[in-house]
Design a protein that fits this description.
The protein is mainly beta. Helices cover about 10% and strands about 45% of the residues. It has helices spanning about 125-130, 150-160; strands spanning about 5-10, 10-15, 20-25, 30-35, 40-45, 55, 60-75, 85-90, 95-100, 105-120, 135, 145. Strand 7 and strand 8 (about 85-90) form a beta hairpin.
Length: about 160
């Protein structure tokens, strides 16, 4: 199985006593979003009936980088050999690349999280059309794969917002 998960790692370009300078740019980025979860949160939230909702961008590639806290992303992309993934991010993992047409959602740790999205938007991007959550059933039919976290850890994080101690 080929792992399709792409993480853009920071590059340290200068260090002085107790200080590091990181280049966190992502090639092609033409938008940057600051996304804050205040406490444990899921984005997009479940419906009032408890069904999972997903974002699906047609004209944007996300490159999500956690700068505070932890997030667990759930991805479903039919263009991958293994389409369903859980990917764990914290301040050390880099920016997770989420291609257009990939269903995605994220859950924050109990104390919340802040991330930067180094977005790559094409000329047809319109934020009024790119952020309309959808309910998707396909993901429930496929056994997920895991990156940066084991299945039991992901289940625990989803239930509690914390990693095992």
């Amino acid at each position: 199985m080929t792992n399709p998960i792409v993480l853009h790692r920071p590059r340290i370009f200068r260090e002085t006593p107790s200080v590091r300078f990181h280049d966190i740019s992502v090639e092609g980025s033409n938008g940057i979003d600051l996304v804050e979860h205040q406490g444990r949160a899921t984005s997009p939230p479940n419906t009032r009936y408890g069904l999972k909702q997903w974002y699906f961008h047609k004209h944007q590639t996300d490159n999500n980088r956690v700068i505070k806290g932890q997030r667990l992303f759930e991805l479903f992309y039919s263009g991958w050999d293994s389409p369903h993934w859980f990917v764990f991010l914290d301040e050390t993992t880099g920016a997770l690349e989420i291609p257009p047409h990939c269903y995605h959602r994220s859950m924050s740790c109990a104390s919340g999280s802040i991330l930067l999205n180094h977005a790559v938007r094409d000329e047809e991007y319109d934020e009024r059309k790119e952020f309309n959550p959808q309910v998707v059933w396909k993901a429930a039919m496929v056994t997920p794969c895991y990156h940066g976290i084991r299945p039991c850890e992901a289940d625990h994080f989803i239930q509690t917002g914390e990693l095992f101690k």
